[in-house]
């Protein structure tokens, strides 16, 4: 699921929401009721995206494949 960044025009808080593509964008800051501005922060997306990939997305890959690839990597670096 994509991560959307928002900034509140009232309290200036910036935060990110993981939303379904089909979900409508947030309009109101739940904490203060201020109007939200949708940010297109690519750098922020990539930073968070890495963690997202490690923590969640990679679980979709089968564990044995990852282990095998890691072993191959270790073996090739040792044999040199
Ligand atoms: Zn706010």
In words, what does this structure look like?
It is a single chain. The chain has 80 residues and is of the alpha+beta class. It has a domain at 3-39. It contains 2 helices and 3 strands, in the order βββαα. It has helices spanning 42-55, 63-78; strands at 3-8, 14-18, 36-39. A 3-stranded antiparallel β-sheet has the order 2-1-3, with helices on one face. A hairpin with a 5-residue loop joins strand 1 and strand 2. The chain starts with a strand and ends with a helix. The model has no long low-confidence stretch (mean pLDDT 75).
Quick description:
The chain is α+β, with helices and mostly antiparallel strands. 38% of the residues lie in helices and 19% in strands.
Topology readout:
Blueprint: E1 3-8, E2 14-18, E3 36-39, H1 42-55, H2 63-78
Antiparallel strand pairs: 1-2, 1-3
Distance between the termini: 41 Å
Bound molecules: zinc ion
Strand content: 15-25%
Q: From the alpha-carbon coordinates, what is the Rg to the nearest angstrom?
A: 19 Å
Index terms:
80 residues, alpha+beta, three-stranded antiparallel β-sheet, 19% strand, binds zinc ion
């Amino acid at each position: 699921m994509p991560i959307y960044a928002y900034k509140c025009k009232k309290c200036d808080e910036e935060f990110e929401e993981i939303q379904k593509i089909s979900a409508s964008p947030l309009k109101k800051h739940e904490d203060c009721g201020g109007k939200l501005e949708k940010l297109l922060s690519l750098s922020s997306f990539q930073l968070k995206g890495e963690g997202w990939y490690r923590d969640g997305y990679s679980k979709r890959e089968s564990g044995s494949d990852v282990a095998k690839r890691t072993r191959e990597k270790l073996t090739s670096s040792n044999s040199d």
